Amino acid sequence: MRTVLGTLMLSIVVAAQQSPYAGQQDRHIKALSEQQVSELRAGTGMAMALPAELNHYPGPRHVLDMADQLQLSAEQRKAIQAAYDNMHTRAVALGESLLERERQLDGIFRDRDATQERVWELTRDIARLQGELRATHLEAHIATQALLTPEQVNRYDQVRGYSLGEHHHNGQHQH
């Protein structure tokens, strides 16, 4: 009985000490999950544009997916597709640059070459790229919102489940 109790207690102590990062040491880029790497490569939004999305600035990809529900004109579809294409091209390029800097950061620690100067250089680059990537997604929401009517924005919000209370669209107070 003592042996079983001792083994159980040791298991509890080991489990309590195990890091929440256990298992992540095998990642190609330690700071990023495979899903994050895939999303950066694909140029997806990764919730970067939530301030826009949740404040009545629809995203171009979602608007294009809902084109029939929103009754987009041919001109609107073309302009929103162009906004999306521009955003996507830029987001993929920025995502690849961000992944490269993360690989470099991981590498200097892996190779035991980390210096304060190099860490600062790489983390500043990573932060700048993250900011540019987020701004790219947010700008696409601004461009998309400007191409829609207030009624289309309201419909978008309703379909997406955001329609509660009063809204402000295109600088106009809506009820």
Key terms:
175 residues, mainly alpha, Four Helix Bundle (Hemerythrin (Met), subunit A), two-stranded antiparallel sheet, 3% strand, disordered C terminus
Provide a descriptive summary of the structure in words.
This protein is mainly alpha-helical and 175 residues long. The protein has a single domain (28-160), classed as Four Helix Bundle (Hemerythrin (Met), subunit A), CATH 1.20.120. Helix content is 68%, strand content 3%. Helix 2 (34-42) packs across helix 6 and helix 6 packs antiparallel against helix 7 (116-147).
Q: Give the percentage of residues in beta strands.
A: under 5%
CATH class reads Mainly Alpha
- Round the Cα radius of gyration to an integer and report it: 23 Å
CATH hierarchy: architecture: Up-down Bundle
Nutshell version of this structure?
This protein has 175 residues and is mostly helical.
Blueprint (SSEs and pairs):
Blueprint (H helix, E strand, L loop, with lengths): L1 H16 L16 H9 L7 H4 L6 H6 L1 H4 L3 H37 L5 H32 L2 H11 L6 E3 L2 E3 L1
Helix pairs in contact: 2-6, 6-7
